[in-house]
Amino acid sequence: MLIGQGIDAHRFAAGRALIIGGVEIEYELGLAAHSDGDVVIHALCDALLGAAGLGDIGRHFPDDDPAYAGIDSRILLCRVMASLRERALAVRNADITIMAQRPRMGPHIPAMVACLAEDMGCPAERVNVKATTTEQMGFVGRGEGIAAAAVVLLDE
């Protein structure tokens, strides 16, 4: 068994779609990033890569590489999973926490779970997504952005 953890955060930006956990959420702001800014998938990729001892998302998909400008983070997750499959590693479970004061994430969580499970090639029962606010503390609480943390367990 191999355990990995990942964390990501992005500030809000005007003129961008808000994509969280592979799901587009209707909101007046998106997240600033070189890719689509999906903090859930970025944290998840870091956790998966960390568990496998493969570094981090920035090493594999550098933010100064034009090939990744605006890329759908689900593509990055699928590429990470291909690397894990090459090493005979499979997801035992993933637990993800979204930290967002706004917008509300709860209604979108089932769709996020479905997207993530599909991209990781595992049953939806092995993927847990939950959301919390920071009680109006810090950059998340002030509504400046969104953060996510992920923990994964891989089987060899």
UniProtKB/TrEMBL annotation:
Gene3D superfamilies: 2-C-methyl-D-erythritol 2,4-cyclodiphosphate synthase (3.30.1330.50)
UniProt entry keywords in alphabetical sequence: Isoprene biosynthesis, Lyase, Metal-binding
Site (Transition state stabilizer): H34, T133
Listed GO MF terms: 2-C-methyl-D-erythritol 2,4-cyclodiphosphate synthase activity; metal ion binding
EC id: 4.6.1.12
Catalytic EC class: lyase
Cofactor(s) required for function per UniProt: a divalent metal cation
InterPro entries per the UniProt record, alphabetical: MECDP_synthase, MECDP_synthase_CS, MECDP_synthase_sf
Cofactor note: Binds 1 divalent metal cation per subunit.
Annotated binding of 4-CDP-2-C-methyl-D-erythritol 2-phosphate, by residue: 8-10, 34-35, 56-58, 61-65, 100-106, 132-135, 139, 142
Keyword NADP: no
Function: Involved in the biosynthesis of isopentenyl diphosphate (IPP) and dimethylallyl diphosphate (DMAPP), two major building blocks of isoprenoid compounds. Catalyzes the conversion of 4-diphosphocytidyl-2-C-methyl-D-erythritol 2-phosphate (CDP-ME2P) to 2-C-methyl-D-erythritol 2,4-cyclodiphosphate (ME-CPP) with a corresponding release of cytidine 5-monophosphate (CMP).
Subunit comment: Homotrimer.
Protein name stated in the entry: 2-C-methyl-D-erythritol 2,4-cyclodiphosphate synthase
Organism expressing this protein natively: Thioflavicoccus mobilis 8321
